[in-house]
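Quick one, T. Sequence first:
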Amino acid sequence: MNETGQRPPGHDHTPLHGPTGDGGRALIHARGLVKRFGEFTAVDGIDVDVQPGEAFGFLGPNGAGKSSTMRMIGCVSPPTDGVLRIVGLDPRRDGPAIRARLGVCPQQDNLDPELTLRENLTTYARYFGIPRRVARQRAAELLDFVQLTERANSKVEPLSGGMKRRLTIARALVNEPDIVLLDEPTTGLDPQARHLVWERLFRLKQQGVTLVLTTHYMDEAEQLCDRLVVMDGGRIVAEGSPRALIERHSTREVVELRFATESQEDFAGKLDGLGERIEVLPDRILLYVADGDAAVAEVHGRALTPASVLVRRSSLEDVFLHLTGRTLVD
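Structure tokens:
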């Protein structure tokens, strides 16, 4: 688990797998999964398989059904309908057994501020019946893994947000889980703290730990996820690797044009035919094209003079906004 290559908790035993025809080797297997709250359908018949050692992401705007799906996977909210198997078990019957195999990193850190970092880990380990000697050993390994050894005897309350997040991730690994659930793992962190958390999660992924995460950060999804699904309105609207989704739902490059005028709409008609898709925003026009430089040359060839031009590679954020829209969802 440390920098010398020792494996982290969560990769020390063979995970359970569903039987053939019920998810195969998938640690998470869902078919037609539904979650309703009264008349409201939060999750509307989704199919998901997460394989051992995979980093899998759920993306979507607020209200898309991500959190409801994660709560069903975490066995804290029962499915309304459909098939769900976690490590080969049925959450409706085997919730406690499944929860013992999961590590959970909630969106809001819920550490005990009156305990030291070490005590937060060893106390949590007791919930899983882990002997004190083993708990102390795992706490030391995990604090080393998240680079908090020097703060082991410090209280939690004065820690920075990034340190608290790393400690919460360490706590999620105490029971050597088969699956680690991460709900918005870096929300609210500054860039340096985000990148350190990413590094720790990437090391877990390299060492075979299965990660399932939700995130609003598209660059985080591109960094961490082997595969992901985009959810909207309780349904899956796209799935695949980040690169495959970009290739399928966007173009190779995007040209951002800003014209020195109050209305970008005045220029939109003059750009017809320049890209596979044109998107007019209040402050700029986006051209989705295969060759950005050639498109810019054509813009100038049409005697148009933008105030600024940016050519960039298409990103997962372009895909996300194309599939789910730019309208804010509360």
